[in-house]
Structures are given as structure tokens and as C-alpha cells.
């Protein structure tokens, strides 16, 4: 990026806070983002109302050309940045850098207690860009496309497979359980051993949002439509956080199902994953397809792929939507 470009881009861009009525303009710069899996159409209006969140826009001559969102967490000491995007015709000219600098300056000025910036990224920007961050964890992502008409059979087949596997264990694996509020709190707030064993870098990642397990962050998660399940109540080896399916642009209107898998025990992870899919099965109609995203420790990816593609092969209508890809959990001093 040349200085001239930066100066020109800089001098013409105004930054402001996003409002409800900017929705259409934000959508206009968002076509094709994340291979049709963009969460922002479903989340924008929730973001406008969410406590501790600020959504920033960059505008050129009144037209929206960039967005970055922030939420203050960890008792106001950490800012999470999300949703970064630049209008297609403006990319490659430093606009992302400008909105990021503006946002950082705004947060430093208005929230001087913030010490840390945290984010997740789905692309690996290479060692030079990564040198600015601490890479706290790398998560593997399995992305499957399932035609809406095949979802029921797919989940049935997964259920048969994991139950056969569980029954073959000695002693047979107990059925997974949904964790209630107090159970989850006692596991994640009063049991450092469990947190070390289960959470990557001690961090919950809910649909790309990385949160430390603190009472206030768990309060924030409770305001969202999601559920936690485990392979057992005492000393779980796998936890799966399921975000309620939500609409995405893919294929003219599909649903995205996001499952964050915590822990490194593959058989337990497979059972809890399928338990969660069975639980939301009734909400998976209503679109052209379901895009399933499963995030896990990289060591589990192959076993989770084998589970889904084995069942997909029998049920039909299921295919890999993206090859193996990764989610990086990054942090930097602010
Ligand atoms: C990724 C995107 C925002 C980059 O916009 P851009 O204006 O072309 O960005 P530039 O190439 O000018 O890069 C400017 C800065 O943004 C940073 N950046 C680029 N992609 C980034 C990302 N995914 N997350 C965080 N920062 C990113 C660059 O590292 C660079 O930072 P630096 O100036 O501190 O080195 C743009 O291509 C886009 O909107 N893509 C589609 C949406 C998307 O994939 N967003 C990424 C979310 S993880």
C-alpha cells in the first residue's frame, strides 16, 4: 500500500457508529462473504441492541464502505473485534487498516481500562502479520453442506453410528446430557482442571467469539440462543456448545449450524456432537440446505469428518463444503 493511497483513502473516509437503518447498506458490501456463510445478516439487529457492543462504519461520501464491530468483555479489560469487512471495490487500498486504527483509537480514548484485544480469524495471514499477535490456539473446522431434504436421514444415520460405538464400549457409554446453568457454572468457574482439559487456551469460543469463562461472560452467553451438552455430568471429557441454527445467504437462503466442540476425547466428542444435532433437528428445515460447521481440536478433525462423511455417504445429500480449514485465536496487548 503506497502512502499516497493511504492518504487519499484516509482523507475521504468518515467513521461513525452503525444504526439499525444502516442494515441495507451494510448488506450491500457483504455479498459473498465467508462463502455465503455470513452471520451478519442474522445478527446485525441483535448487535445494535447488545450491551457493551459498538459497531463502527467507514463511509465515503455518505456511502458505507467498511465495518468493524467491538464488544467489551472480561469486566471491560478486553475488547473483542469481529465482523471486519470492506466493500469489494475498496479492498486492497488499506481501508481495513484505517477502520481498525480508528476503532482502536476510539476504544483507547473512551475505554482506557482495556488492556487486551482478542479476535479469531479464519484465514492465516502468514508469519509477518501473525507476529503482531499471540496465537493462543488453532482450531480445526469441518464444514459440510447438507441438502435440507436429507438432514433428517443424515442425523438418524449419525445417531445409529454413535450409539453402536457407545454400546461397544466397556462399560457402555452413558447418553450425553444437556448442562443446566448451575452445572455449567460450577464446571467452568470453579474447576480449573476441567477448564485446562477442555477449553483451548482456557477460552470459550462461541461461533467465532472468544470469551474467557468468567461470571459476566457466562451471563452474556446466557442471553443468546445456545445450549451446552456434555458426555457426562461429572468430569466430562467433551463439551459441545451449539448455537441455534440461523439463516445465511448461501444458496438463496440456507441455515447455518455451528457446533463448538471442546475436549480431546474423540468418541465422547462424537456422541455429544450428534446429541446436539438431534436436539436441534426440528429447527433445521426451512432453507435450501444446512451448512454445518464443527470446530474442534485439530486432532479430532479426521475422526469427526469420518463420522459425518460416513453417515453422509449412506444418507446422500451431504458433501464437504470446504476443505480442512482453521480458526486462529489471537490476542495482543492493547
Ligand atoms: C479482509 C478485508 C477486510 C481486508 O480489507 P482491505 O481493505 O482490502 O485490507 P488491506 O489489504 O488493506 O489490509 C489492511 C489491514 O487489515 C488487516 N486484515 C486483513 N484481513 C484481516 C482479517 N481477516 N482480520 C483482521 N485484520 C485483517 C491486514 O492485516 C492489514 O493490517 P495492517 O495494516 O495492520 O498490516 C477485505 O478483504 C474483506 O472485506 N473481505 C471479506 C470479509 C472477510 O473475509 N473479513 C475477514 C474477517 S476474519
Which terms summarize this structure?
Aminopeptidase; 11 helices; disordered N terminus; two-stranded antiparallel ribbon; 334 residues; twelve-stranded mixed beta sheet; 14 strands; binds coenzyme A; 2 domains; single chain; alpha+beta
CATH class of the largest domain: Alpha Beta
CATH architecture label name of the largest domain: 3-Layer(aba) Sandwich
Average pLDDT figure: 94
What separation lies between the terminal Cα atoms?
A: 24 Å
Name every ligand kind in the structure.
Answer: coenzyme A
**What radius of gyration results from the CA coordinates?**
21 Å
Structural class computed from helices and strand pairing: alpha+beta
Helix content: 25-40%
Order of helices and strands: HEHHEEEHEHEHEHHEEHEEEHEHE
Taken together, the total number of domains comes to 2
Shape: globular
Q: Please describe the biggest sheet, giving its number of strands, its sense, and whether it closes into a barrel.
A: 12 strands, mixed
- Strand fraction equals 25-35%
| Count of alpha/pi helices | 11
Low-confidence stretches: 1-7
- Numbering strands along the chain, what is their spatial order in the largest sheet? 1-2-3-4-5-14-6-13-12-11-10-7
Amino acid at each position: 500500500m503506497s502512502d499516497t493511497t493511504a492518504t487519499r483513502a484516509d482523507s475521504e473516509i468518515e467513521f461513525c457508529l452503525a444504526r439499525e437503518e444502516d442494515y441495507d447498506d451494510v448488506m450491500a458490501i457483504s455479498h459473498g462473504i465467508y462463502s455465503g456463510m455470513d452471520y451478519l445478516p442474522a445478527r446485525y439487529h441483535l448487535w445494535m441492541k447488545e450491551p457493551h457492543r459498538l459497531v463502527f462504519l467507514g463511509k465515503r461520501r455518505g456511502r458505507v464502505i467498511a465495518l468493524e464491530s467491538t464488544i467489551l468483555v472480561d469486566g471491560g479489560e478486553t475488547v473483542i473485534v469481529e465482523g471486519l469487512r470492506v466493500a469489494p471495490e475498496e479492498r486492497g487500498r488499506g481501508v481495513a487498516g484505517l477502520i481498525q486504527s480508528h476503532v482502536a483509537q476510539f476504544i483507547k480514548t473512551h475505554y482506557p481500562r482495556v488492556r487486551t484485544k482478542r479476535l479469531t480469524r479464519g484465514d492465516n495471514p502468514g508469519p509477518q502479520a501473525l507476529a503482531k499477535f499471540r496465537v493462543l490456539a488453532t482450531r480445526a473446522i469441518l464444514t459440510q453442506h447438507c441438502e435440507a431434504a436429507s438432514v433428517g436421514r443424515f442425523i438418524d444415520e449419525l445417531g445409529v453410528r454413535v450409539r453402536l460405538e457407545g454400546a461397544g464400549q466397556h462399560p457402555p457409554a452413558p447418553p450425553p446430557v444437556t448442562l443446566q446453568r448451575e452445572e455449567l457454572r460450577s464446571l467452568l468457574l470453579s474447576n480449573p482442571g476441567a477448564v485446562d482439559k477442555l477449553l483451548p487456551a482456557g477460552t470459550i469460543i462461541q461461533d467465532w467469539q472468544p470469551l474467557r469463562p468468567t461470571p459476566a461472560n457466562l451471563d452474556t452467553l446466557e442471553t443468546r440462543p445456545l445450549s451446552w451438552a456434555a458426555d457426562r455430568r461429572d468430569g466430562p471429557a467433551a463439551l459441545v456448545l451449539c448455537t441455534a441454527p440461523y439463516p445465511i445467504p448461501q444458496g438463496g437462503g440456507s441455515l447455518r449450524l455451528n457446533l463448538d466442540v471442546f475436549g480431546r476425547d474423540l468418541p465422547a466428542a462424537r456422541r455429544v456432537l450428534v446429541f446436539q444435532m438431534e436436539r436441534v433437528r426440528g429447527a433445521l428445515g426451512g432453507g435450501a440446505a444446512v451448512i454445518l460447521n464443527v470446530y474442534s481440536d485439530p486432532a479430532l478433525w479426521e475422526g469427526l469428518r469420518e463420522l459425518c462423511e460416513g453417515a453422509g455417504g449412506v444418507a446422500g445429500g451431504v458433501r464437504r463444503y470446504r476443505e480442512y480449514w482453521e480458526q486462529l485465536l489471537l490476542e495482543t496487548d492493547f
